Amino acid sequence: MSMTVTNRTRTGRSPKPGGLVWILVLVSGLLTVACHQPQAERKERGELVVALETGFPSLDPLNVSNLAERQVALMIMDPLFDLGPDGELLPVLATGYEILDGGRRYRIALREDVVFHDGSSFNAAAVQVNLDRMRDPANACRCLPLLDDIDLVEIVDEHHVDIHLARPNATIPAVLADAPGLMVSPAWLAMTNDDGNRSPAGAGPYRLGDWQRGRRIVLNRNPDYWQADRPHLERLEFRPLPNEESRHTALLAGDVDVIQTPHPRFSAQYADNPAFALMTSEGLGSVYLMMNKREPPFDDPNLRQAIAHATDRGLFVSAIFQDQYPVADSLIGPGSWAHTSVSGFPEYQPDRVDELLEPGNQPVEFELSIVNAPYMMIAAQALQEMWEPFGIRVEIRALEGARFFSNILNHRFEMAFSRFAGRSDPDLTLYRSLHSNHADRAPSTNYTGYADPEMDRLLEAGRRELDRGRRIEIYAEISDRLARAPVYVPLFHTTFQTMMIDGFDPGPNVADGVLRLDRARWQ
Amino acid sequence: MSRVMFGLSARLGTAGAILLAVSLITFLLMQLAPGDPVDVMLGEGATAEARAELTAQLGLDQPLPQRYWQWLRDVLRGDLGESFRSGTPVLESIVERAPVSVQLLIGAQVLALLLAVPLAVAAAYRADGFFDRLTRAGSLAFLSMPQFLVGILLVYLFSLKLGWLPATGYVAVGESLGGNLRSLMLPCLTLALVEFPTYLRLLRSEMVQTLGQNFILTARSVGLAPWRILIGHALRPSSMSLVTALGINIGRMIGGAVIVEVLFGLPGLGQMLTEAIFRREYLEVQGIVLLVATAFVVINLAVDVLYRWLDPRVRLREAS
Questions:
Q1: Which pLDDT score is estimated for A8?
Q2: Cβ–Cβ contacts within 10 Å for residue A112, how many?
Q3: Could you tell me if A137 lies within 8 Å of chain B, comparing CB atoms?
Q4: Closest to A215 (Cβ–Cβ): which among B47, B170, B227?
Q5: pLDDT at residue B300 above 90?
Q6: What's the rounded Cα separation, in Å, for the pair B55 and B49?
Q7: Which residues of B11-22 are buried (b: 16+ CB within 10 A; e: fewer)?
Q8: What are the DSSP E strand ranges found in A144-205?
Q9: Distance, in angstroms, between B13 CA and closest chain A CA?
Q10: DSSP assignment, residue A273?
Q11: Rounded to an integer, what is the distance from CA A255 to the centroid of its chain?
């Protein structure tokens, strides 16, 4: 029997060990009393806090690729060209270009009144140094394939450069609006220590103030910016918050003013709330299912067609993504100049599925590879249930991101759920995904092993053709051809959403989802 | 060599072997995991030549034993390598992030003890009474909840409903002490609320046993006040299991800290580890795991030493 002091000390003075708990509560109470809502103060001071969906290990243009990296980089480094709200390119550090030698040479005219953050001048030599650095295979830029056709970057005079090409290529201005076009000071590039990576000297509207990895990056207004009336905000702070729910609570709690890529359920829930505003960018690409036509079972065109007819894309987008994204018929998003309405994409037709699958055949079974994320799993399960009545059995294979990516690059999948984020020129995505030159390689971004001589012809024509009207026709033909014999089943267009507190004007709505915060202001 | 020194040397030797094994296992797991850092770095459109060049540049074309030996040799020289992507030294990144995680873990342990010790003493004081039953039921509830759920509930209450504390973010001590405490309050409390029930139940159980010992009866018979008996005489001999749990729990808490750091957007080692795994930054993952394993081993060595201070019987046993 255990003996306790309890019964023998009733008349004594009771100890109060629980008092410490009350002290703790009091201390925490005192800590919290001093709290305040800093949002109003930020507005007063012209400051803005933005939550990004990923971190940014490096701000070297060589490494700029995802949305978060591009968002921060574009505030520090002005590009030669930039994507405008209508999907067209606008000159930024360039003033324009001239196409010479039947499309084998681009002459880029440069702005004359620009200095980098380190005080050095922006000129033709700076452009040459930057582009040569991006083209150097030793620097392992992700952008290297975009620069394949460039033979030489030549200085014409202080404010003109010529880009010589091996063959005509209509995508060069779009390439110069991507990572290769982000200009940094050659003096900074000449620095050999790692410090350079942490304090890039661009010619953008903001200068790097403070960078604590994983926590925040602070940018201060560049008082010497070449556009005298910009930027409007004094200070930007970017915080990486990879967890979607954390971004939501950070916005609701007033820790941040703007969040990137909220979950569509959150957007739908708060879309009508007057305290918040939602900006939806139309996007340049699509989210799709892709089928590996190199291997069974998807080497059978009837099965691919049947999958397209068995997929009720409208219902899928409505049920899983709360109708926040537009249903897609093609891989090219509505934010692109090359987007056209596609005729002939197989609509949801249960009768046609039964015909194509021929009763009496073996039941259809395959693996659907997805990135292991909660919303992907929900989407995959919805498709699994949608196809089950047709006797199509799907095993969902949820993979960690790097493994998924490695598998699809090496054609190790049957069906996969993936996306094209899209670029300002459709060629930059479609050529490598559909051209037969890349079909039998591994790794290759022609994931599905797509090989069609007519498609090759169209892709080449799209890349070489310099007339915009003709290019639109070519890409419309490409989309129609893909729709008639589906290897990709587009589900919805990639759509970038940005949620912010009411009273903030985020500037122009651009299809790539990057906020042009040099034009943003508190209202 | 005295028995004490011999015992200490043996423990240090074991610790070294454990760290070596941890480094080898981590290295192999990362190397054998599917997914290639070259794919991650070069992206979708890289040519075979560019891939081969980068693979050689990163030393990924070398045989595994050679790569492990090279890494281990560099580690012993204090060089944990560099990030593939940014070129930043891994040690520099760890040093930058570690203070946040250390603060989080210490804060959580302190809060857990501040909650557990008074409640355990009070519960043991009237064992099986109303308060004892209440604390046991309450602690069981927290023990059954995963960290992320506790975190979400705390954020909902203190950030969204009451608006007292920030839901995310971190403020360094150097910038504002109050801001620092405010930014860490919810993350620390999240970890503490999940961990304190273990401490509470262990301490309460040992306290109940200790209070039945003869020396407590003696103390009582000489008229010592109950608080003096509880705190001065019963608490210390009842703390052995608690101290063991503190050492062992640090591993569990580090695991929990990874989730808490991601949930609250804290720029600590947990968040760095998560990012490094997704980006296939082998050297960063290996460096962090090695550091965490070292901390775990050192803390448990310290716990062993603490035993001797807490319990004279251990010292007597070693002396005899």
A1: 36
A2: 12
A3: yes
A4: B170
A5: no
A6: 10
A7: eeeebeeebeeb
A8: 150-157, 160-165
A9: 36
A10: -
A11: 24
Q: Give the pLDDT of residue B296.
A: 85
Are A255 and B167 inside 8 Å of each other by CB? yes
- The candidate with the shortest Cα–Cα distance to B201, out of B110, B105, B307, B124, is B124
Q: Which of A307, A306, A303, A327 is nearest to A316 (CA)?
A: A327
Q: Both tokens of residue B72?
A: 């281990």
Q: Give first-to-last CA distance, chain B, whole Å.
A: 15
Would the CB atoms of B165 and A214 count as touching at under 8 Å?
no
Cβ distance A249 to B160 less than 8 Å, yes or no, reads yes
Asked if A6 reaches chain B (Cβ–Cβ under 8 Å), the answer is: yes
Please tell me the distance in Å from B3's CA to the nearest CA on chain A.
Answer: 37
**pLDDT tens column, A75-130:** 999 999 999 998 899 999 999 999 999 899 999 999 999 999 999 999 999 999 99
Q: What is the arrangement of strands in the sheet containing A94-100, beginning at the earlier edge strand? A: A94-100, A105-110, A160-165, A150-157
Question: Cβ of A407 under 8 Å from any chain B Cβ?
Answer: yes
pLDDT tens by residue, B115-156: 999 999 889 888 888 999 999 898 889 888 888 899 999 999
Rounded to an integer, the average pLDDT of B20-44 is: 77
A502 C-beta neighbours (distance < 10 Å), count: 10
Token pair of A384 as six digits: 């699994």
pLDDT above 60: residue A30: no
* Alpha-helical regions (H) of A322-362: 350-357
